[in-house]
What we know:
Blueprint: E1 7-8, H1 15-31, H2 33-40, H3 48-65, E2 70-71, H4 72-87, H5 95-111, H6 116-123
Antiparallel strand pairs: 1-2
Helix pairs in contact: 1-3, 1-5, 1-6, 2-3, 3-4, 4-5
Family: Belongs to the TSR2 family.
InterPro entries: Pre-rRNA_process_TSR2
Keywords: rRNA processing
Amino acid sequence: MAASNSGAGGGPISAEASAALGEGIRLVFGRWTALQMAVENQWGGRNSRAKADELGASILSWFCNSRGLLYFEDLADMMDEQISELFNADFEDNSIDEVARQLLIMHEECLQSNYSSIERLRNSHVQGNAVSQSRQVFGCAAYQFVGAFA
């Protein structure tokens, strides 16, 4: 994974911020071409959608339960390992880094009760299927996530 080793703020996240971050993760995942290809082509088997949900829940939990600084490398590595394990895939398009960076920014905004990037994602319309388009990545009540990605 290429990128900086700078840390982002960790610590407590409000229920409102957690819910918003969860929605943001779902919105980003819905636009993540490589992940959508893995789900649609069932790289993780028949339960690929559930595995994508599991990945999202794991990321939200990581944000909500981490103490101290959150590092890009840690998030990107965790995502890479889980994608490899869940989907038997290696996304070599650098999209994991892009998504991890976007999620860290979104988390920082949520800590400040700034939901503007999530609002932009919510209001943007994805035309057609994310898989059929060129790659796009837009720029804790955690356990309510299960099934929420569907």
